[in-house]
Amino acid sequence: MLEVIEIAAIAAVGVLLTYILTAASHHRRLKEVGNKLPGPRESFLWGNAADMQAQGGLVLFLDHLHERYGPIARFWEGMGSLSISINDPQLLEQVNAIRLEKRVDGLDFLKGLLGARGIGYTSGAQAKARRQLWHSVLSGQPFQQSMLPAFNTTVEATLKRWSKNGEIQGEGVVIEFNTAARVLWLQLNQRLRYSAFPSLPFSSAWREKRRLLTFIHTEEAESHKDWGTGDLLSLLIAAKGQDGTPAFSPAEVHDEVLTLLFGVYDNSKILSHTLHQLACHPGAQQTAREEVDAAWSGQPPRTIQALISLRYLHACLQETLRLSAGRGVIWRVMEQDVWVGKFLLPRNATLVAPTASVHSNPDYWPEPSKFKPERFLETDPSTGGWRPVKHPGGHSLAFIPFGFGLRNCLGQKYALNTATLILGYILQRFTVELPTKADRQLHFKEENLSLESTDGIHLRLTPRLSPVSQA
């Protein structure tokens, strides 16, 4: 018996030593290869954490990194954790970024809140199959017909409340739109049969997790009674796999719902930032308003086509995403060694695509700091009107606010259509203005890998003198 234990102990020590030697060899290679790439010096234990903190967060750090070191720059997220940031779309294409898998292990801290069975934690064939299921759920576009009347009602009621409760200034009302837009966005998500997401992780509302989970379970049970009524929760439950069995187990429905709640939490920034840009650019606002008046004739939009037809307004949303509201970070995993010019990008390193830096790259976006919605439009020879540019910025990876490739955002059409609906209503009824000259300049701080305006976004809504007649 003692001999068996001794053999097992020796084997365990051997496995441990092999693991340590392999890890050390991997670490040494990453250090040797990584430090041949341009980038700042790092701490042995903490990598470039101090540099990130000094810049105000990862997003701002990456902006600074590319300003100093060029289109390829490396940094260290800890001892031996190599990240390579690329802000040039052609180089992202060269490393085959659109086919690389997302680095999900960096999101492990969210598993306790979101659950580990949602699409955010799947990979490989499982991720592909899950995305196909999601596409089958969303292909019917519940937003189009079944949800549009409910959304119209919610937006109408909100505009009346804003007019009544805003701070009176002259003939208009002043509203802080960061808060107002978030409240409205969460109300619309409730129409999808989602409870308002309580908070981001590690806040005081984290303790409400069990209550939220209980709510989702209750919603599931109720939805089983009326499958396929058009809301997303019912459609998830009703979805079938190729063999005719339920596509999602109750546990998977539960985690998918929570994942989506987290994903749509800060999409309201699209709305508030676009309104701010339109207030700063009255000419663009008037062009967008004329488009809405011509398309809707003062009526509530009743079809998805009434939203899709607003090409210029959609371009305003895209340009806002490029300038400010779409600032984030995309992570992928290098699957093999790749040479890019004289630089070797090693296997298992983290590839980072910093959207803010990509979207301000002057090689693809001339005068990148200017608000120019026309970047996203071109003339349609057959009609003489506008049509969307196929590749904004001249490259398929030059505009990536919703990610790219296998892991692009499934909810991007929902986010843009919802913002178009709300903006269309506002432009129908109001002129949007800056209350003071000081409100033109926004100041940002980084929160949860995106930039938040520190002083809010204050705008004045003044009723139009001669709005298009409404039914």
TrEMBL record:
Keywords: Heme, Iron, Metal-binding, Monooxygenase, Oxidoreductase
Homology family: Belongs to the cytochrome P450 family.
InterPro entries given in the database record: Cyt_P450 (IPR001128), Cyt_P450_CS (IPR017972), Cyt_P450_E_grp-I (IPR002401), Cyt_P450_sf (IPR036396), Cytochrome_P450_monoxygenase (IPR050121)
Name listed for the protein in its UniProt record: Cytochrome P450
Cofactor(s) demanded: heme
